[in-house]
Amino acid sequence: MHLDHDHHHGPVALSADAHRPDGSRRALRIGLGGPVGSGKTATVAALCRALRTELSLAVVTNDIYTREDAEFLLREAVLPPERITAVETGACPHTAIRDDISANLEAVEDLEDEAGPLDLILVESGGDNLTATFSKGLVDAQIFVIDVAGGDDIPRKGGPGVTTADLLVVNKTDLAPYVGSDLARMAADAKAQRAELPVVFQSLRSGTGVADVAAWVRERLAAWTA
Amino acid sequence: MSRAALLVLADGRFPAGGHAHSGGAEAAVKAGRITGAADLEEYCRGRLHTAGLVAGAFAAAAVLGADVRELDAAADARTPSAALRGAARRLGRQLLRAARAAWPSAELDALAREFPKGAHQPVVLGVVARAAGLSAVDAAYCAAYESVSGPATAVVRLLSLDPFEATGVLARLAAEVDLVVDRAVEAAREAVEEAGVDALPAASAPLSEIGAEWHAGWAVRLFAS
Predict the structure, then answer these.
(1) What residues bind GTP, as annotated (chain A) (predicted)?
(2) pLDDT tens digits along A211-220
(3) Per the CB < 8 Å rule, is A90 touching B109?
């Protein structure tokens, strides 16, 4: 708990307020978005495994029309069930994470009230298109997850997710030789689109990159609690 | 206060969570009761005269100063389906969050403090309308129109219905929305002035309640309710 002298007396937070009603600093919220099948849920699971012994964390999923992602995380037992909440999005995850964030805000606040205190909440979007980004009213930072099998021209195409996400994860690098994706070209295109913003090449199968993503999250958390 | 506040509050893009709900249309589509624009019109008409009338009267009564706790309990009593009561409270909470940002007021903060998990959406809608400087009639319009616009937009997604046809349905129902609003506001005035909240309309559609319970048990669905 990071008690703060600047107490807020409102009944409940409105959106991205950094403090909870009792004046304590709320958990850092990191969004994970990206196309269908790029490995967002698997990345969330890997992050939970990497960080759960050192941090108090929880996950919100935004599925398109099922609770598959929440159920995958439950099945994998990466976190206890009371730390995983599924938000229903009416078939539009990008609406729930960007245009109308009210259900997601309720989910993150309820997790902090009921499973807290928490250091970190991961908000996962259902698979969507290259323009889907998280509202700043919902998350403090966002990770965009693409994969090499989705086409090595995705970094070149750009779009708000690839261009502006705080971290770009290029997943499934182990598949590159089989699908004819050129990792060097993807890295060069990502650099051209993102300038100094970081990119991690990840393979959950071989474990490559997971530690880099976890380290990036730790840096964000250190900045948030500083 | 500006009358245009009504346009802000009634805007389908007002960020209060409505986009994830179908107003019972998803269950009705799956059961084969809505297959196209003609069915949608009949479905919306039924909803307007039941859920729409009740929601309109509750919203208007809240604007006119009826006790919010009493209204919330009376709304519970009119909603047999636990799934629908849950959805109404979640939507009430989401609406209150958006409204507190749009029209900051002590009354809205107090409501959030009193109902941390949300009050019934039409009750919140009435308090919000008052905070926005709007009238009982305005609040009833919002509630009655939402009762048909929600299913109409949901059916566009569920059946890939031509969006022009769905909008035509809403336009054809407009005169009936006027009538329902008149009845809702009259009932709210009577309730607030003498008869009490128990006298507010209690029109119901049992199939909607049954459909909501059925829908809540599905493993795969597009909408939350």
Answers:
(1) 34-41
(2) 999 999 999 9
(3) no
